């Protein structure tokens, strides 16, 4: 009925969907949204309709996007054990330490456990990397990103 190819309509719907979901994810202001769509070269009337569509539906789009987000497991507890092999039949004097961790996780009201084993040097490296990541979260740049994600 529109005398337009199916591909053109599909690309238009996909573009509109992308525009609304990305704008809703970032919770951009009216002015930023208008600046974003002004570049597209649409008429002022169509720009106003798109702005009104965005303002009317952004909360609903954000709620749908939050429901679609994967539910990641959360930390519940941790058990650990240090094992040290002091000798074997072939080597009388050796020290071979191993750290065994049992990580209890909650996921969708179910509790699961993951058993991990590593040597102390790898564990120390992991601890340093995690501390570095926590330190990175305290920078102004990361705080701004986290604030915009909420």
From TrEMBL:
Lineage top rank: taxon: Eukaryota
One Pfam family, short name: COMM_domain
COMM domain: residues covered: 74-141
InterPro entries xrefs: COMM (IPR017920), Commd2 (IPR037354)
PANTHER family: COMM DOMAIN CONTAINING PROTEIN 2, COMM DOMAIN-CONTAINING PROTEIN 2
Protein name: COMD2 protein
């Amino acid at each position: 009925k529109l005398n337009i190819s199916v591909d053109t309509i599909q690309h238009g719907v996909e573009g509109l969907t992308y525009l609304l979901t990305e704008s809703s994810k970032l919770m951009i202001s009216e002015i930023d949204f208008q600046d974003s769509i002004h570049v597209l070269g649409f008429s002022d009337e169509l720009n106003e309709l798109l702005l009104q569509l965005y303002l009317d539906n952004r909360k609903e789009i954000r709620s749908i996007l939050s429901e679609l987000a994967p539910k990641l497991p959360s930390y519940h507890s941790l058990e650990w054990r240090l094992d040290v092999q002091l000798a074997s039949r072939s080597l009388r004097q050796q020290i071979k330490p191993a750290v065994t961790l049992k990580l209890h996780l909650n996921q969708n009201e179910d509790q699961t456990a993951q058993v991990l084993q590593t040597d102390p040097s790898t564990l120390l490296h992991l601890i340093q990397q995690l501390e570095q990541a926590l330190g990175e979260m305290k920078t102004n740049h990361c705080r701004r990103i986290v604030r915009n994600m909420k």
